[in-house]
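Record minuted for completeness.

…
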Amino acid sequence: MKNEENINHLTAHLFRENSGKMVAVLSRLFGLHHIDTVMDVVQDTFESVLTQWRFSGVPDNPSAWLMKVAKNKAINALKRENKTKSFSPSLYLTHFDDSFENQFDILLSPKEIQDSQLRLLFACCLPDLSQKNQVILTLHILCGFGVPEIANAMLMNNEAVKKVIARSKDQLKELNNILQTRLITLSEERIQTVHTILYLMFNEGYKTTRSKKGINNDLCYEAIRLAKLLDHKNAPRQHETQALLALMFLNISRFPARVNMQEEWLTLEEQDRSKWDKVFIEEGYYYLNKAVESKSVTRFHIEAIIASLHCSASSFEKTNWEEISKLYRILEQLEPSGLVKLNRIMAESYISNSKSIQAIDKLKSNLLFKDNFLLSAAKGDVYQRKGQFKNSLSSYEEALQLAVSPADKKFLKKKISQYKQNQN
């Protein structure tokens, strides 16, 4: 029983680590018009692993084993469909041998695997698709997320997700040979699109919208993994990529302290900073130091520096709110949005909260906050720190009526409960 559990755990880990690589390599070899067959083959490969490895044991190089099995299954599947011409060497890079096996072996080098993933990542970010649909397609094809996982992450029902995937894949198939061209064009505009997709993906994992669990680690780790593919010498907007990676690592470092044993949110003030992951913080600073070498500044640079100030503060009381407030003002100029303005107001409220409530109320006209709990929750926090506890309670109760996420509801109920206990 223990051995079976170990194999199940290993298989799940290998699926997350390898499925996207396998789909990328096989799609590059066979063409995007076979994307459905390729994905079925990859899924079937992992399912067969559970049976075979229970009896024969885990091979020395499981990743290579999986890739070879997937290749053979793909060939057999395509032969059954009478489409063997689809993987003729003439479709692929002309400097390769005529040997199909040789082509496949070349594609298994680390550099080529990374290149295959990059090509597929850019293909998934089709300009004709909305950003939401680009995220869905990327999660499904390159990250191996199933329909229920995507539905949970993207606030959609299963049928809606299936329709998006089907339509998006149909568009992807029309690109067919894009993965087999000699060069991959990494335009600055396309890089920016990918950055936005990965930023959205990470944010949904950082704070899930409707999941019972407030954090989806898998989404965050996949966003980091894909962002790392973009970070290579002479890549367009490389410093922006590094700033994005810095932001991700600095934020993910706090995950062990963001929720308590009851899966309730803990505020920055409540978090045990000794639980913050020092390795991830160091990784964040590594990328931030590289990012600030750039002559240009992006939203990711500013957000990463703000995150670094939180990570460098030895306690909540020693947080440099003056500097954070200044940075939010710069961010407002780069990326004007109601959420950035609200974050700036909240940062300033730790310096002086005399006019914070009025400033928050001015945001009510912003469509972003229509039927959103954030403004009421923010007011509840400010009122609490001002010692106006009845107003705080009223604001938290209003926020609770508007909250959607189970984790947010649980957090607000805790705040209301704490107030009522203090009154007794």
Observations:
- Residues 112-211 form one domain.
- Confidence is low (pLDDT under 50) at residues 86-97.
